[in-house]
Amino acid sequence: MNKEIAVLGAGSWGTALSMVLVENGHQVIIWGRREDLVQEINEQHTNQRYLPNVRLPEQLKATSSLSEAVAGKDVVVFVVPSHSMRTIAKQVKKWIGDHALVVHATKGFEVGTGMRMSQVLKEELSEPFETRIAALSGPSHAEEVAQKCPTTVVVASSHSEVAEEVQGIFMNHYFRVYTNSDLIGVEVGGSLKNIIALAAGLGDGLGIGDNAKAALMTRGLAEIARLGTAMGAKPLTFVGLAGVGDLVVTCTSQHSRNWRAGYMISQGKKLDQVLHEMGMVVEGVQTTRTAYSLAMRHHVEMPITEQLYAVLFENKDPEQAVEDLMRRGRTSEWEEIIRSW
Ligand SMILES: NC(=O)C1=CN([C@@H]2O[C@H](COP(=O)(O)OP(=O)(O)OC[C@H]3O[C@@H](n4cnc5c(N)ncnc54)[C@H](O)[C@@H]3O)[C@@H](O)[C@H]2O)C=CC1
Ligand SMILES: O=C(CO)COP(=O)(O)O
């Protein structure tokens, strides 16, 4: 059945997801902060800054009013950067109808608390949304979804009927949606892969080779799974779309902002300059900070994250970071993961 849907966040991902939803016959309104962007979407049917050279469907409406966006909607999709999730949730809670489904497609944790996005939403929206929150994640660059390239994602909720309802709303012939009951694993996998993508971009820029990149991805997955399981995730989730799937695409795609940020740092650019030049959200930077402290809180080793933290925030020489990773003490490949099962 067709739904009335609000998409909050008119960046690349919010715009691409809105296109999917319009394609599926839903009535979609996208909320953006900037009036000029809202006007561009409504009048030119483009979003040149965040999704260049894409023609948006004329049925897609945009607004800069949060109340207009969410009031009376069947589904509210949050696609704002993680740093603004709580503020936006606080602002909209008085307008979201009691019957609405809440979905988020954001990859990251709340800075300071280390909370997952569904936890932030639960805390802000409270009853009666406790059971009606789902997370959408997986290997899905907005640029390719907007071109209708075959894409698979996963929607997770602790309530299977919620995940299945969201699956039905988003799924179509080029956007295949799987369900998963492991909300923690899906959110943690989608967030932590950005750290490894940054490291992969750095490694590629330093020219450390394909063997090293395969090592970063594989050992990266091991540390993602280690922290994830310590946080309550199911290990199998990390070999699924929100784990290895998203890790592969983000470490290898030309579209990845996290990979590009790592590459630019390897060329000697300072972090501030990289973020300024990118002009888009690079979630992996703050996620590195958060994962670094979550690893301490949960007493798990995350050697790649620790080295990236030192490069990003303590001015460590990236080549030294690679050397230090290679000189770590001997260990067994599966020891820690098996211990955490
Ligand atoms: N771009 C992609 O291919 C994908 C992105 N994501 C995730 O989606 C989330 C959003 O990313 P994108 O749309 O790519 O970002 P983007 O960089 O393309 O756009 C960011 C949007 O957020 C808005 N924004 C920035 N600060 C804000 C604030 N304080 N309050 C409200 N809005 C604010 C900007 O105006 C802009 O509309 C991120 O967590 C990202 O990791 C997930 C899957 C794919
Ligand atoms: O999460 C993404 C693809 O699945 C987008 O990654 P970037 O933010 O690195 O572009």
From TrEMBL:
Residue sites binding sn-glycerol 3-phosphate per the record: K107, G138, S140, K193, D246, S256, R257, N258
GO CC, alphabetical: cytosol
Pfam families found in the cross-reference section: NAD_Gly3P_dh_C, NAD_Gly3P_dh_N
Catalytic activity from the UniProt record: sn-glycerol 3-phosphate + NAD(+) = dihydroxyacetone phosphate + NADH + H(+); sn-glycerol 3-phosphate + NADP(+) = dihydroxyacetone phosphate + NADPH + H(+)
Keyword Nucleotide-binding appears in the UniProt entry: yes
InterPro entries tied to this protein: 6-PGluconate_DH-like_C_sf (IPR008927), 6PGD_dom2 (IPR013328), G3P_DH_NAD-dep (IPR006168), G3P_DH_NAD-dep_C (IPR006109), G3P_DH_NAD-dep_N (IPR011128), NAD(P)-bd_dom_sf (IPR036291)
Catalytic residues (positions): K193
PROSITE patterns found in the cross-reference section: NAD_G3PDH (PS00957)
Any single biological process term in GO: glycerol-3-phosphate catabolic process
Positions with a binding annotation for NAD(+): G9, A10, G11, S12, W13, G14, A142, R257
EC number in record: 1.1.1.94
Residues that coordinate or bind substrate: K107, R257, N258
Subcellular locations according to the entry: Cytoplasm
Domain of life the protein comes from: Bacteria
Gene Ontology MF, one: glycerol-3-phosphate dehydrogenase (NAD+) activity
Entry-linked Gene3D superfamilies: N-(1-d-carboxylethyl)-l-norvaline Dehydrogenase, domain 2, NAD(P)-binding Rossmann-like Domain
Residue ranges of every copy of the Glycerol-3-phosphate dehydrogenase NAD-dependent N-terminal domain listed in the record: 4-162
Residues that hold NADPH according to the record: S12, W13, R33, R34, Y50, K107, A142, R257, V281, E283
Pathway given in the UniProt record: Membrane lipid metabolism; glycerophospholipid metabolism
EC primary class: oxidoreductase
Coiled-coil annotated spans: none
Record bears the keyword NADP: yes
Family of the protein in this entry: Belongs to the NAD-dependent glycerol-3-phosphate dehydrogenase family.
Function: Catalyzes the reduction of the glycolytic intermediate dihydroxyacetone phosphate (DHAP) to sn-glycerol 3-phosphate (G3P), the key precursor for phospholipid synthesis.
Protein name: Glycerol-3-phosphate dehydrogenase [NAD(P)+]
Naturally occurring in which organism (per UniProt): Thermoflavimicrobium dichotomicum
Species lineage: Bacteria, Bacillati, Bacillota, Bacilli, Bacillales
